[in-house]
Specification:
By secondary structure, the protein is mainly alpha-helical. It is built from 2 helices and no strands. It has helices at residues 2-34, 45-63. Helix 1 runs antiparallel to helix 2 (45-63). The longest helix has 33 residues, at 2-34. The relative contact order is 0.11.
Length: 66
């Protein structure tokens, strides 16, 4: 019975981890739509900082272990 309980808990954790990963991906894709494009040659330093911050945050989130 204990083995069955552990298997059930493991399955719930795996499902939850998959859900969180999917949610993080969705949020990252949504956030990319909010970041201004930096294709302009005379980019504002605030735009560059925003882009760098967003990229850094996405990198940290993608490398975070659950």
């Amino acid at each position: 019975m204990e083995s069955t309980l552990q298997n059930g808990t493991s399955a719930v954790r795996e499902d939850f981890s998959e859900y969180v990963a999917h949610l993080q991906l969705h949020m990252a894709l949504q956030a990319r739509n909010l970041v201004p494009t930096l294709t302009q040659t005379n980019s504002d330093s605030r735009e560059q900082l925003l882009h760098q911050t967003q990229a850094h945050f996405e990198k940290l989130v993608s490398r975070r272990s659950l």
